[in-house]
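Page 37, continued from 36.
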């Protein structure tokens, strides 16, 4: 779809065709391990990590992950080129496959730190951030942004505003933009409202992909079924999925087969649970509680008879052995 230049740092287009979105308190390493069991070929993003936490804090706490999570992209939050570059260097040492800069989060907390979506109003600064990270590491540096921003006084939601942003930031060395196809309303709406109230405008992202064929444009926002994925892939190089990937994780396995690898054999859900029990036995010690691992599995049986009993049993688990026993119990027997 896009005309990737020969010198690109980006992996082959098939590697970024489908991805799971960065989501705070959702896409932690435990969720990503689980998602990887379901979708071996999909690109996974971390939660947003503030560059400060890596540079000044304990990088192990924020950056450790399991080898099986590859390909995995770290999303950074920040607006200081030098600090982002330092954080990107640490991330490269940890083996991440991509660094993504958050230019889409509308929360007041992020906004008061002057990063996230409000950075769309300062494209030259975003270009500097990208350039500093690009100089510091050899990984691809990507940006996740909205189609525009509206702070109640100034509404920058024209296609021209978006195109100018992308043009400027690409000059800093960004070759892939993940565009949440809604504007961000800064002030006024909560982050949650900002994910549903501003209307979805896929056509704007499609136009961007047409007019910037040398860039890789990935669309995000409100993609909830395979038909929508297929339609979006007619328009852009990739689709990033957020909430539905969490609500109905088994869909990721189906997507992996339909869009990434037709030979992929869908896993049986009980085998996935058994693999999670093995994983939990490794990680659940001291600091990590079993619930931190299992809470991400609540949607595994979404849409299947017995889903409610599954969620109840999962929430009541007291030990890894009980999780292993749950894996071995047929779903139709859970009600008893
Ligand atoms: C609980 C939650 C946390 C999120 N955290 C982040 C984040 O850390 N960084 C980010 O860029 N977007 C974040 N988002 C936004 C998603 O990445 C995505 O852009 C948004 O949910 C729209 O996609 P969807 O309709 O497929 O969910 C978050 C969304 C949710 C629901």
């Amino acid at each position: 779809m896009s005309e990737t230049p020969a010198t690109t740092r980006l992996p082959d287009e098939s590697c970024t065709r489908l991805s799971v979105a960065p989501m705070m308190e959702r896409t932690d390493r435990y969720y990503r391990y689980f998602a990887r069991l379901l979708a071996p070929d999909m690109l996974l993003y971390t939660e947003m990590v503030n560059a400060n936490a890596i540079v000044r804090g304990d990088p192990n706490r924020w950056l450790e992950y399991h080898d099986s999570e590859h390909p995995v992209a770290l999303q950074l939050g920040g607006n200081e080129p030098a600090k982002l570059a330092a954080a990107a260097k640490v991330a490269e040492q940890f083996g991440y496959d991509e660094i993504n800069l958050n230019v889409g989060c509308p929360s007041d907390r992020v906004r008061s730190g002057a990063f996230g979506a409000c950075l769309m109003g300062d494209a030259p600064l975003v270009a500097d951030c990208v350039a500093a990270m690009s100089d510091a590491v050899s990984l691809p540096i990507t940006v996740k942004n909205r189609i525009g921003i509206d702070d109640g006084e100034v509404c920058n939601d024209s296609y021209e505003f978006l195109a100018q942003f992308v043009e400027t930031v690409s000059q800093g060395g960004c070759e892939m933009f993940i565009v949440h196809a809604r504007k961000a309303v800064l002030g006024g709406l909560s982050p949650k409202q900002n994910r549903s109230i501003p209307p979805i405008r896929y056509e704007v992202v499609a136009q961007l992909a047409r007019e910037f064929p040398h860039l890789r444009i990935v669309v995000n926002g409100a993609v909830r079924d395979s038909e929508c994925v297929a339609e979006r892939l007619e328009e852009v190089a990739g689709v990033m999925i957020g909430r539905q990937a969490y609500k109905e994780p088994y869909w990721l396995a189906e997507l992996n087969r339909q869009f990434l690898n037709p030979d992929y054999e869908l896993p049986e859900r009980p085998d996935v649970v058994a693999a999670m029990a093995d994983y939990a036995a490794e990680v659940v010690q001291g600091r990590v509680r079993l619930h931190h691992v299992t809470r991400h599995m609540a949607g595994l049986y979404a849409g299947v008879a017995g889903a409610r009993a599954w969620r109840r049993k999962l929430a009541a688990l007291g030990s890894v052995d009980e999780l292993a026993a749950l894996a071995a119990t047929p779903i139709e027997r859970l009600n008893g």
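The mean pLDDT is 95. Flag for discussion at group meeting. The CA atoms of residues 40 and 123 lie 35 Å apart.
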